[in-house]
Amino acid sequence: MREMIVSELSQAWHELARGFAHFLPRLIVMLILALVGWAIAYVVKVVLRSILRLVKFDKLSENAGASQLLTKAALPSATEMLSRFAFWVAWLGFILLGVSVLGILGLQQQIATFFLFLPRLFVAMFIMFFGLLAASFFSRAALLAAVNANVPSPRVLSLAVRSIIIVFVLSIVFEELGLAEQTMLVAFGIAFGALMLGLAIAFGTGGRDLAQRFLEKRFVREKKEDNEDELSPL
Amino acid sequence: METMSHGASSQGRAAVTRTEMKLAEETFLTDDFLRQLINVGEVDILVGLPTHNNAKTIGSIVHTIQSGILRWFPRERAVIINADGGSRDGTPELVTGVSIDDARPASNLHALRTLHSISTKYASSPASGAALRTILAAAELLRARACVVMSPESANIEPEWLSKLLHPIYRDGFDLVTPTYRRRKFEGLLITNLLYPMVRALYGVRIREAYTPEFGFSGRLGSQFLGQNIWNDGAGGAGVELRFSLAAIAGGYRICQSFLGEKDHIERSAADFVPALRQTVGVLFSALEPDFPLWSTVAGSQPVPTTGADQEALLEPVRANRKRLREMFSTGVAELESVFQSILSPSTLAELQRIARLGEEEFHYSAELWVRTVYEFAASYQKSVINRDHIIQALAPLFRGRMFTFVMENRNASANDVENNIEGLCLEFERLKPYLLQMWKSRE
Fold first, then answer.
1. Which of A213, A216, A231, B338 is the most buried (most CB within 10 A)?
2. How many CA within 13 A on the CB side of residue A182?
């Protein structure tokens, strides 16, 4: 009996030792991968930060209105954010690669899913950034055009343009990420429809006089005023 | 591209060499147009006429040009090149259809050479850059010694204009002749309050009308400008006339001015305002970057030789809606605050916001503040702090404020007083030039 116990314990110990001996190289490989990954990710971060500074990405981000959002959220600059993001994605990639080397069942599929998700995440970020850029550009263009055409409430017009573009971009981003696609679609439809209906009602009833004045000014009196009073700049 | 010609002859056909033909074939000119030019051969005088739906005025303008050639250049080989931007009212046919015989009885003179008229359609929509490029390419191929571009909208054009714009080139060896006009009071305020003073302060040359639809130039200046790499960057469009003048200054060419008489009053609408800024201020700002080595070293300004009467404002003023000018300024300053924060310095913006709150009587947009505003816009344009076209558009409401002050300051002023005020503004632009240089360098 005693011998049996000793034998079982000895066998278990041997198996544990064998298992550990089998596992240790993998663990070391994982640690090496994590360490090398950290170094590579750090280089990626530094290089990317230099490139972004060189191309004045912060200025672009400022123009897009993304910098203002980051400042409000007490986050670092867009260049720093993107560099750090690249660092973490790269490092996490190496860590997950290392984890997969460990051969732990169940994790393999999760890791594969994560890597498959990365391109979609990048596309979503790309869409978001350029969407914000477009929203900023077109809202400013609308503001300037409205001011120079002497249209009443130019800032409201500009804000409406910006809001519509951002809502539209957000719906695309969520769809790209595959997050609550149906909910987002319905929410977007409701929000957009409500906005248009609200504007129509507001302009048709609440702003009837304003609309009348605006239309009169635009189509009836403007020509006369311009021809009589606009100085020729050239 | 379609081409029509009138009065073609075989004289001097061999003059266009094979090398030139090879070069020309590689250009944007169509074979048909090139054939017409080969038929013309070499010329001494070239009159460029860019058009687009100018059927109402073009007949009399071509007639006047022909009279001018008959009277002032009867011995010279001359050609009229009409670059048309897709007219649908038969303008090209009218250009080529005007016979030289119609001009003879009036002038009682006869040309000793054939006068050619060629019309070519450079595009299906008007573009001043493409039109000028077509004219310059034709001038180069025909080896024209002296060229002149005439506006199809100048209703009061006189045959003498050809002499005034061409003789300084043909006879005296100048390379660019810009006109001066007698204007109605308060007309051309963008020229007098921004373009003239700024070009003068930065480039050191006192050219009154650097942006003009009528100007004369030498063949060598035309060839040099044609060779510049500006035609495909989108900037070779509107305002190319100003770019041409600036290229002449930057290239050290001989420039003079010629007094043409009264400037025609053209009715404008509010919608013309921003395009006018793009064609002038936009072009000037964009030229500052490549021309920095030149203008950063220039101090003061020098007059250019001028023939005929100098600038003289008529006392009869153009009507101006002062209330609207001031209101649009105040609205612009309030509504565009976020845009101005990117362009202007905090002190300039604060000062603008202060005067925007003032009543009509107290309102005063001083020359110094105006110059600082313009220079800060120029520096911001160079650094592209926001979209460059947006920077130009943002200047419009501020310029209305400056117009208001100028109108108020000069409403009872004589022609001499107005001229003195413009001179004062020019000196302010010159005085504050170091401020622009400082901003230019600090923002680098």
1. A231
2. 0
- Start-to-end C-alpha separation, chain B: 45
**ipTM reported for the complex, 2 dp:** 0.82
CB contact under 8 A, B397 and A147: yes
Q: Do B376 and B439 contact (CB within 8 A), yes or no?
A: yes
pLDDT, tens only, B114-142: 788 888 888 777 788 889 999 999 999 99
Q: Which of B315, B339, B370 lies at the terminal end of a domain, its last residue?
A: B315
Q: Which two tokens stand for residue A17?
A: 């030792």
Nearest CA in chain A to B328: A150
A227 in a domain, yes or no? no
Strand partners of residue B215: B149
Number of A to B CB contacts under 8 A, please give it. Answer: 98
Q: Which of B232, B312, B224, B319 is nearest to B267 (CA)?
A: B319
Please report the pLDDT score of residue A36 as a whole number: 93
Determine contact: A225 vs chain B, CB below 8 A: yes
| pLDDT greater at residue B346 or residue A217 | B346
- Interface residue of A56, A67, A136, A148 to substitute, partner B, most B CBs within 10 Å: A148
Same domain, B245 and B361: no
- The answer to whether the Cβ–Cβ distance between B336 and A141 falls below 8 Å is no
Chain A residues touching residue B387 (CB < 8 angstroms): 63, 137, 140-141
Examine residue A1 and state whether it is found in any structural domain, yes or no: no
**In this complex, which of A223, A227, A229 lies closest to B320 when CB atoms are compared?**
A229
Confirm or reject contact between A11 and chain B (CB < 8 A). Answer: no
Based on the fold, state whether residues B128 and B165 are members of the same structural domain.
yes
CB contact under 8 A, B190 and A233: yes
Residues B119 and B212 occupy one common structural domain? yes
Pick the last residue of a domain from A104, A138, A158.
Answer: A104
Please answer yes or no on whether A231 and B186 come within 8 Å at the CB atom: yes
Residue A86 falls inside a structural domain: yes
**Structural domain harbouring B325:** 318-442
Cα–Cα distance, B38 to B34 (Å, whole number)? 6
B308 residue type, one letter? G
The enclosing domain of A157 has a CATH number of 1.10.287
CB contact under 8 A, A231 and B332: no
**What is the tally of structural domains in chain B?**
2
How many CB atoms sit inside 10 A of residue A192's CB?
Answer: 14
Interface contact A233-B267, CB threshold 8 A:
no
Domain count, chain A: 2
> pLDDT band at residue A185, thresholds of 50, 70 and 90?
confident
Cβ neighbours of residue B348 closer than 8 Å, sequence gap 6 or more? B369, B372, B373, B376
Closest-CA residue of A relative to B327 is A150
CATH code of the domain in which B246 resides: 3.90.550.10
Q: Above 60 in pLDDT, residue B235?
A: no
Residue A75 shares a structural domain with residue A100: yes
Q: What are the backbone angles phi and psi of residue B5, rounded to the nearest 5°?
A: -140, 160
Residue B336: which of A147, A223, A228 has the nearest Cβ?
A: A147
B100 confidence band (pLDDT: 50, 70, 90): low
* pTM recorded for the entire structure: 0.78
Q: Using the Cα atoms of residue B387, residue B390, residue B395 and residue B397 in order, give the sign of their dihedral.
A: negative
Residue of B123, B304, B110 lying closest to B210 (CA atoms): B304
| Residue B33 belongs to some domain of the structure | yes
Cα Rg of chain B, angstroms: 23
> What DSSP designation does B364 have?
-
pLDDT at B166 over 70: yes
pLDDT value, residue A61:
77
What confidence tens digit (pLDDT) does each residue in B348-406 have? Answer: 999 999 999 998 889 999 999 999 999 999 999 998 888 899 999 999 999 999 999 99
